[in-house]
């Protein structure tokens, strides 16, 4: 095969739209986000745990490297690659691609989570020091960042052998820095092994709850038993990850899979950002234990439960409507016709706000931070970051839907004026 030299000629108007700050963002984000990951881990382990401390707590060279770290990371990725290829669970088809075909995806991520859990319990039973993950956080993060860069370089190079219809609309601009960051190829595969789909929900997401468990075991080593705050954070985030994997098929209709190319943005997010920043609360509690009353715990559990209910119900309604609008659970919902032939929901959860799933997500994010108390800003990094992320993602959705649905989208916005927060935004 030879690189597709004609790829740059096959562009739509979408290709000229630069997101995330265009070239400047494509240069700065791959520099500053990895440094942010390392900075946040260092802060979570420092006595002050202050994100405003200057100079910031800098690690020594020997704290950044541990020979065991790459072995664990690559072994973990290899384990989940094998579990991905295991012929269990069903095989589902994705949405129709530009060439009229549908790709097939194994729906077995929840099996991978369960098998990982069994293996971890066996290791704990054999006396494995899982709490040592606390000491390995920085070296593991460094290795995950390195793997993210290496995989991104591979994906960028191989994309020049991909046919033009296999390229992401927004990732084929001709600007190498921007295309490397945003991702040129939409669904890069090695045989039937889909690299983007694998990274989206497997090693990083499941790795997140493993790191959390390691933080819990470190707390047991230090204090004899896990705190109520640590138990709540582990439980809430395990529920979130288990839900994502139980409903794995739903990811096939998300923006990440359908629209975005697979470049540094998603690779780094999946393999480094998610496992090492989403669980900062657990790492924080190892060094900064927090007392939590029964009443406070009950209120936080209720908040997480409400958020989860909104998140799950709204996502299930959306996914059911996308796959089968005639299903009894969605057939009676009010809709608006569009010029594309598709219809927009204007009742049920999606008549409340335009993104009720984001609302549920943010309520859960707040519940994950509250067990850490109010004395430090660091545990609230996730909910602050996630609010910014979802508002940005909502703006991306808005642009794409307005371009796709035209006047029908304007009608929908008049019917459903609030974007995420009812009567607020």
What do you see in this structure?
The termini are far apart. Mean pLDDT is 89; it is low at 1-16. The protein folds into two domains: 22-291, no CATH class; 310-424, no CATH class. The chain is 58% helix and 4% strand. The strands form three sheets. Strands 1-2 form a two-stranded antiparallel ribbon. The protein contains 16 helices and six strands. By secondary structure, the protein is mainly alpha-helical. Strand 3 (189-190) and strand 4 (193-194) form a beta hairpin.
Low-confidence spans: 1-16
The domain count comes to 2
- H/E element sequence: HHHEEHHHEEHHHHHHHEEHHH
Mean pLDDT: 89
Strand content: under 5%
Shape category = globular
* C-alpha end-to-end distance: 51 Å
Number of separate strands: 6
Strand order of the largest sheet: 1-2
Helix content: 55-70%
Rg calculated over all Cα atoms? 22 Å
Structural class: mainly alpha
Largest sheet: 2 strands, antiparallel
Number of helices: 16
Family: Belongs to the ERG4/ERG24 family.
Pfam families: ERG4_ERG24 (PF01222)
Pathway: Steroid biosynthesis; cholesterol biosynthesis
EC number: 1.3.1.70
């Amino acid at each position: 095969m030879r690189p597709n030299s004609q790829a740059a000629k096959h562009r739509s108007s979408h290709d000229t739209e630069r997101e995330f700050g265009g070239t400047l963002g494509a240069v700065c984000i791959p520099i500053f986000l990895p440094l942010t990951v390392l900075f946040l881990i260092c802060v979570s382990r420092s006595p002050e745990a202050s994100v405003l401390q200057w100079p910031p707590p800098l690690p020594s060279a020997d704290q950044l490297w541990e020979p065991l770290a790459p072995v664990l990371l690559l072994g973990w990725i290899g384990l989940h690659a094998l579990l991905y290829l295991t012929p269990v669970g069903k095989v589902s088809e994705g949405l129709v691609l530009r060439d009229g075909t549908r790709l097939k995806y194994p729906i077995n991520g929840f099996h991978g989570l369960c098998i990982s859990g069994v293996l971890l319990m066996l290791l704990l039973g054999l006396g494995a020091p899982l709490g040592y993950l606390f000491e390995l956080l920085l070296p593991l993060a460094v290795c995950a960042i390195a793997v993210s860069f290496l995989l991104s370089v591979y994906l960028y190079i191989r994309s020049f052998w991909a046919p033009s219809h296999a390229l992401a609309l927004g990732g084929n601009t001709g600007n190498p820095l921007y295309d490397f960051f945003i991702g040129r190829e939409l669904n890069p595969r090695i045989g039937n092994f889909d690299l983007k789909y694998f990274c989206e929900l497997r090693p990083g997401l499941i790795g997140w709850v493993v790191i959390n468990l390691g933080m819990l075991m470190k707390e047991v080593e230090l204090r004899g038993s896990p705190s109520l705050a640590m138990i709540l954070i582990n439980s809430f985030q395990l529920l979130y990850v288990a839900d994502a994997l139980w409903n794995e098929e739903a990811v096939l209709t998300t923006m990440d899979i359908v629209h975005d190319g697979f470049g540094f943005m998603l690779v780094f997010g999946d393999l480094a950002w998610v496992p090492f920043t989403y669980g900062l609360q657990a790492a924080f509690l190892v060094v900064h234990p927090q007392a939590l009353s029964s009443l406070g715990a009950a209120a936080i559990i209720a908040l997480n439960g409400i958020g989860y209910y909104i998140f799950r119900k709204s996502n299930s309604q959306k996914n059911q409507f996308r796959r089968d609008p005639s299903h009894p659970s969605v057939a009676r919902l009010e809709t608006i016709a569009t010029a594309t032939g598709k219809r927009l929901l204007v009742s049920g959860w999606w008549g409340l706000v335009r993104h009720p799933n984001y609302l549920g997500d943010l309520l859960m994010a707040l519940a994950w931070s509250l067990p850490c108390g109010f004395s430090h800003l660091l545990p609230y990094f996730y909910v602050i970051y996630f609010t910014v992320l979802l508002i940005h993602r909502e703006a991306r959705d808005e642009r794409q839907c307005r371009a796709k649905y035209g006047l029908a989208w304007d009608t929908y916005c008049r019917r459903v004026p609030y974007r995420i927060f009812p009567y607020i935004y």
